[in-house]
Q: What sequence folds into this?
């Protein structure tokens, strides 16, 4: 590594609701009373002009999203509550989302789901979907496949394409229903026709693999492209992957692949940031810009992508795209090692073996890193242990303590 020597270190969805329905009026009334008290504490329930639900809802939106005023989540939550009590369905959904996520006040999942239920009972597909999602995920309610399907079916009947995609997933996974790929594919078709991006992507996968119906690579690619155009990040990455390697009905196109990676990176995908950063480092499908590539890799590492942390660390050790930063490189490698990234584990072993990047030269520590790299599948770890003269399993079959 060009500049791995260093000073010794001291140590080595937007606004959609999500949702648990409360059973029984007493429970809902109790939730209402408690949320009213919260609203009073936030100073939002004093009599004032313009208390119409729509006016209150608009003011809450301004405060929640900083539209012309300073953001104030607590005040927004209180105003959503007032509007919701006045029968404003959209306010019920926003209030439920804030309660579910703990914005503008404490997390109150049961009260959140009571508001979702009220919205659903007024014929709102999003409220019904939120209840289905709560029963599917177990967030705010015990996971219950029967209730999840019930509320998803109600949401779909009210016109939600997203609910059809969720129902299809239940049938594909056989969660609470017998596995039925044909039914899943039909539901994904309905979701895709309604413009749901997740439905498009799931239908594309079934078409590509020939599940639940005939294999149709052309249709799969068209669906992935459509979902990607609509902003579905996993579909952007799938299109980039297919374009980078080509094959079948798709011609290899590294430049178009790079454009999808760039878009995924700008959308905040950690994997997209990493792949776009690597494309910039290597000049694959785009002009090589090492400094920009290094920045994207660091952003991906900060977002928790382990392989990005390892690749960024190599840039910092070797001075690629900027000055050497060996101490920061070691920090990134330790971060990636926590996620059991084999390359990070191996590189920590190499640095410990050589006494580089500010680490003490320590063959025993190096051997421990190499063993972990071997367990994680690194192809050179066994040879590195052999070169050190260190046993692969020092415990005679007992797992090494980490």
A:
């Amino acid at each position: 590594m060009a500049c791995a020597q260093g000073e010794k270190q001291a140590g080595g969805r937007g606004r959609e609701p999500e949702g648990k329905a409360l059973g029984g009026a007493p429970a809902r009334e109790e939730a209402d009373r408690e949320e009213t008290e919260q609203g009073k504490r936030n100073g939002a329930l004093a009599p004032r002009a313009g208390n119409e639900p729509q006016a209150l809802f608009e003011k809450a939106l301004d405060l929640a999203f900083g539209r012309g005023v300073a953001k104030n989540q607590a005040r927004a939550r209180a105003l959503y509550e007032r509007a919701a009590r006045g029968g404003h369905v959209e306010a019920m959904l926003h209030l439920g989302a804030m309660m579910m996520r703990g914005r503008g006040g404490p997390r109150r999942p049961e009260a959140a789901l009571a508001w979702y239920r009220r919205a659903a009972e007024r014929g709102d597909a999003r409220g019904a979907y939120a209840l289905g999602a709560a029963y599917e995920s177990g967030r705010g309610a015990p996971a219950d496949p029967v209730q999840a399907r019930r509320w998803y079916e109600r949401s779909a009947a009210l016109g939600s394409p997203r609910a059809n995609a969720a129902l299809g997933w239940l049938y594909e996974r056989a969660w609470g229903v017998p596995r039925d790929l044909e039914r899943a594919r039909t539901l994904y078709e309905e979701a895709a026709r309604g413009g749901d991006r997740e439905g498009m992507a799931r239908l594309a996968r079934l078409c590509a693999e020939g599940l639940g119906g005939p294999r149709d690579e052309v249709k799969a690619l068209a669906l992935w492209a459509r979902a990607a155009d609509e902003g579905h990040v996993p579909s952007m990455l799938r299109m980039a992957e297919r374009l980078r390697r080509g094959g079948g009905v798709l011609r290899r196109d590294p430049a178009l692949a790079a454009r999808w990676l760039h878009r995924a990176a700008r959308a905040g995908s950690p994997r997209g940031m990493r792949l776009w950063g690597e494309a910039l480092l290597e000049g694959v499908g785009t002009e090589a810009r090492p400094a920009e590539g290094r920045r994207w890799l660091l952003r991906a590492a900060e977002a928790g992508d382990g392989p990005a942390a390892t690749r960024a660390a190599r840039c910092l050790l070797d001075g690629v795209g900027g000055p050497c930063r060996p101490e920061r490189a070691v920090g990134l490698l330790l971060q990636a090692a926590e996620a059991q990234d084999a390359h990070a584990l191996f590189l920590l072993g190499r640095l410990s073996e050589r006494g580089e990047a500010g680490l003490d030269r320590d063959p025993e520590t190096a051997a421990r890193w190499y063993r972990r790299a071997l367990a994680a599948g690194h192809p050179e770890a066994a040879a590195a242990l052999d070169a050190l003269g260190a046993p692969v399993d020092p415990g005679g079959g007992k797992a090494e303590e980490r």
Residues 25-41 form the longest helix (17 residues). Residues 160-230 form a domain with the Serine Threonine Protein Phosphatase 5, Tetratricopeptide repeat fold (CATH 1.25.40.10). The two ends are 27 Å apart (CA to CA). DSSP finds 20 helices and no strands in the chain.
